[in-house]
Design brief:
The protein is an alpha+beta fold. The chain has 10 helices and 10 strands. Bound molecules: acetoacetyl-coenzyme A.
């Protein structure tokens, strides 16, 4: 067992830390306040190669893999969770599955555009009636010669407003059990019959984009299928195993930011004639936050490491997401408490961390869904 990072991984972490401090941190409050999509942050991320971690070098990416991506996402989310989810979805829910399940033609066409950030990706599984029960989706895709015709409305599409490429899951065979007859399609923005609908206003990660997607007689070539026809649910689930590591990294980054802000404030803020860091009531909170963060870090990095080795990681990814998202919410709650009244004001970043932390227990599988996945593995 070796807990040391490789030279490449250390370089990625340090570059991401510098990027987060110089580019993201100064803009994060405004991105949140104005619900402004973090375009500048994304451009700067693209220049640093942060959009191509999961794209092999032969297709224009760095191929540095999941552990490197995870290290970068932790740093990014310490500064700006809106940018964090945007990058996580592009890397792990779009580039990752295209590299893993795309045909040679699809990989050659799209990966060299996605890796350097010339194009942005989105992943579209959920619908109004199918969130946790993902296999219940109702969008259809009917075969018509060498095309499929997609009809339906998708929801909760992260990056929807700005993405150029969408991985859309639709039902191709209504006659079999729900999880069996689903197919994954790569759909380009601009395809006739494809429309991005309403943008959602959110409690947190307000700079990230969340939209509806409307498909009406939307014809896509059969060559745009990812994986095999009717076997898209496996692609969706396999992809989410990786995506959940990304959200766990996001949660960890938010938790770290909460601890950092709390330590700073506890040293500065004086009450009863001394810094509040002198009081046991505050120290215990900081100690609890720090130890939970360390435990979550080990789980998150282990899940990413397993994925890089091509080993099973469904259970580990769910455990990592469950624990890291709990940790983020515990740390956010305690960070506001350490700050007292100041923590309730928008003038201090912990107010934003508190709102941003909440989503990590919801998207890419709620806490309850992680427990379902974990319990199925335990009972196997
Ligand atoms: N990898 C590969 N295949 C998998 C898999 C995995 N991790 N998990 C399940 N499968 C396969 C199964 O083997 C099974 O195939 P066979 O029948 O051939 O064996 C098939 O998929 C069906 O599996 P289940 O019976 O487990 O399916 P289920 O209907 O019981 O659902 C679930 C399982 C875990 C509840 C799943 O529906 C789920 O994960 N729900 C949550 C959905 C979710 O996370 N949505 C997130 C949306 S994206 C998002 O949030 C992005 C964002 O905005 C940032």
């Amino acid at each position: 067992m070796d807990f040391h990072l490789t030279e490449d991984q250390r370089m990625v972490r340090d570059a991401a830390r510098e990027y987060a401090r110089e580019v993201l941190a100064p803009r994060a409050a405004a991105v949140d306040r104005d619900s402004a999509f973090p375009e500048e942050g994304l451009r700067a991320a693209a220049e640093r190669g942060f959009l191509g971690f999961l794209v092999p070098e032969e297709y224009g990416g760095s191929g540095l893999g999941n552990l490197a991506l995870t290290l970068a996402l932790i740093e990014v989310n310490r500064a700006c969770a809106s940018t964090g989810v945007t990058l996580s979805v592009h890397n792990s829910l779009v580039c990752g599955p295209i590299a893993a399940h795309g045909s040679e033609e699809v990989k050659r066409r799209w990966l060299p555009l996605l890796a350097p950030g010339k194009k942005l990706g989105a992943y579209s599984l959920s619908e109004a009636g199918s969130g946790s029960d993902a296999a219940a989706l109702r969008t259809t895709a009917a075969r018509d010669g060498d095309h499929f015709v997609l009809d339906g409305t998708k929801m909760w599409v992260t990056n929807g407003s700005h993405a150029d490429v969408f991985l859309v899951f639709a039902r191709t065979n209504p006659a079999v059990s729900p999880a069996k007859g689903i197919t994954c399609f790569l759909v380009e923005r601009g395809t006739p019959g494809f429309r991005v609908g309403k943008s959602e206003e959110k409690l947190g990660i307000r700079g990230s984009s969340t939209t509806e997607l409307i498909l009406e007689d939307c014809r896509v070539p059969a060559a745009s299928v990812l994986g095999k026809v009717d076997e898209g649910f496996r692609v969706a689930m396999h992809t989410l195993d990786g995506g959940r590591i990304g959200i766990a990294a996001q949660a960890l980054g938010i938790a770290e930011a909460c601890l950092e802000a709390s330590v700073k404030y506890a040293k500065e803020r004086r009450q009863f004639g001394r810094p509040i860091a002198d009081f046991e009531a505050i120290r215990w909170k900081l100690a609890e936050m720090a130890s939970r963060i360390e435990a979550a870090r080990l789980l998150v990095l282990r899940a990413a490491w397993l994925k890089d080795r091509g080993e099973p990681h469904t259970f580990e990814a769910s455990v990592a997401k469950l624990e890291a998202s709990r940790t983020a919410n515990l740390c956010a709650r305690e960070a506001v408490q350490v700050h007292g009244g100041a923590g309730y004001l928008v003038d201090f970043p912990v107010e934003r961390y508190f709102r941003d932390a909440r989503i990590t227990e919801i998207y890419e599988g709620t806490t309850e869904i992680q427990k379902l996945v974990i319990s199925r593995h335990v009972l196997r």
